[in-house]
């Protein structure tokens, strides 16, 4: 039986309902060599972000995927603290972001060392937190993968192939997504265990369809950040193109930012529930399809 690996332990499909597949609790977009990078008092993060989690719990959301990975301030200990404070499961990644957000140790590590690190976090747990990483989060440059980004991807594919974990990548260009899928398949893993994050940023819709037809998950994660008409129209366009079985929806919002005073002002994770889903229903999308997009697809994408 497949499970979602979360801060509160494995969760089966029957234990979950709506899942938000792309959000952030804590992010530091400064590069890892900057003073104060990823530093914050855990209590301050809980104080700011726990109320945002409580809001979505009341709307029926049952889990959230944290997309902050290595290089952009992943703090698994903070994710765990917020999760425990709210009794709410969070799925935390292993992996690392693109250049220049790559720590020196990752830059100098071999593919085998990176594979072993990701595999260890997926199977044994992240540092001293006691919970397993639930997926692998990467990124690629807009103009194509660098040699270092390719090395990280190859290591990720090998680690994922040993577990069944999904690999998600912040990748803006559809042609780069296709290159990433080529690398994953060359390493013996499968296109259907890849998430094309920020798919909406590729304006050639043909690439959206091509990625889904190849088996990858496509993710429109600009809910509440782009205009509601724009997002609704794109979702319906993807459904009409037959991509509904591979489509994920989320906000890419939050979050505590340690570069800002008191972590800044969080943006809520509620817009999908309160605005977009009612709008899609008003436009004729049936309840079964909405359930698939918000309950079934996220579980199938991240569970292993």
UniProtKB/TrEMBL annotation:
Keywords assigned by UniProt, alphabetized: Hydrolase, Metal-binding
Keyword Metal-binding attached: yes
Task: Keyword check for Hydrolase, yes or no.
Answer: yes
Matching entries from InterPro entries are given as: Metal_Hydrolase (IPR032466), Phosphotriesterase (IPR001559)
| Modification sites for N6-carboxylysine | 137
SUPFAM superfamilies membership: Metallo-dependent hydrolases
Give the signal sequence positions.
none
User: Entry's PANTHER family?
Assistant: PHOSPHOTRIESTERASE-RELATED, PHOSPHOTRIESTERASE-RELATED PROTEIN
The record's similarity note reads: Belongs to the metallo-dependent hydrolases superfamily. Phosphotriesterase family.
Name of the protein in question: Esterase
Organism, by scientific name, is Rhizobium lentis
Q: What is the lineage of its organism?
A: Bacteria, Pseudomonadati, Pseudomonadota, Alphaproteobacteria, Hyphomicrobiales
């Amino acid at each position: 039986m497949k499970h979602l690996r979360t801060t509160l332990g494995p969760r089966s499909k029957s234990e979950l309902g709506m899942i938000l597949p792309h959000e952030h609790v804590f992010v530091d977009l400064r590069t890892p060599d900057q003073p104060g990078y990823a530093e914050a008092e855990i209590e301050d993060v809980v104080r700011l972000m726990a109320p945002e989690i409580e809001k979505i719990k009341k709307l029926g959301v049952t889990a959230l995927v944290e997309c902050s990975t290595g290089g952009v301030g992943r703090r698994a200990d903070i994710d765990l603290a917020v999760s425990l404070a709210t009794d709410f499961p969070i799925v935390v990644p292993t992996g690392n972001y693109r250049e220049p957000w790559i720590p020196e140790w990752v830059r100098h590590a071999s593919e085998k060392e990176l594979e072993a690190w990701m595999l260890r976090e997926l199977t044994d747990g992240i540092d001293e937190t006691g919970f397993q990483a639930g997926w692998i989060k990467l990124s690629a440059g807009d103009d194509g993968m660098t040699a270092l980004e390719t090395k990280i991807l190859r290591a990720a594919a090998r680690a994922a192939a040993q577990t069944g974990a999904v690999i998600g990548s912040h990748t803006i260009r559809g042609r780069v997504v296709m290159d990433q899928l080529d690398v994953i398949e060359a390493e013996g893993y499968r296109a259907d265990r890849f998430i094309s994050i920020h798919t909406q940023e590729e304006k050639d819709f043909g690439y959206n369809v091509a990625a889904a037809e190849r088996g990858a998950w496509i993710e429109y994660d600009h809910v509440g950040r782009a205009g509601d008409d724009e997002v609704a129209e794109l979702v319906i366009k993807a459904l009409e193109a037959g991509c509904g079985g591979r489509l994920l929806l989320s906000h890419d919002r939050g979050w505590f930012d340690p570069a800002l005073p008191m972590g800044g002002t969080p943006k809520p994770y509620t817009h999908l529930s309160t605005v977009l889903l009612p709008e899609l229903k008003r436009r004729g999308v049936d309840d079964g399809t909405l359930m698939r997009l918000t309950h079934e697809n996220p579980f199938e994408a991240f569970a292993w």
